[in-house]
Write a structure and sequence with these properties.
Blueprint lengths: L15 H23 L5 H8 L3 H18 L3 H8 L1 H21 L3 H28 L6 H25 L1
Helix pairs in contact: 1-6, 1-7, 2-3, 3-6, 4-5, 5-6, 6-7
Amino acid sequence: MTGAPALKTPIVYPTGAEKWILVITAISCAILELLDTTIVNVSLREISGNVGATTTEIAWVVTAYAISNVIIIPLTSMLSDFFGRRNYFTGSVVIFTIASLMCGLSTNLWTLVFWRFVQGLGGGGLLSTAQSIIIGAFPPEKISTANAIFGMGLILGEPANSRWLHHG
């Protein structure tokens, strides 16, 4: 009953343009998620006037996104394992994008709040999955390089976030 040991297939890491397209795409999606968590703050007064919401009611636009992020982020690893990292990431991008469009098309407060919640579900899967995609593109001895690239990408995206928040 001694069989041959199971042969492990070697892990093939992306190289060249494929690797950097993967890294840039993942970082871009992570930046979009970070930007979207706060970008609506600069427009709350205008949104409130357009949909006829009070200050208390308009706070739900921000809160709905935050609540769905808090729900989905801890589940990201499990969902990524269940659907596959590529499928989960792609699905998150699609959900985030469609929900963003629907937020822009919303004509009343509660429709906007609903779509911000859905947008947060998609966005919550982007940040941590983006980091795991980048780490997966590098061999184990280069994980610190992968994390540095991810961190630098987010830092480079932060000035855009700050510009929107402080200068509208």
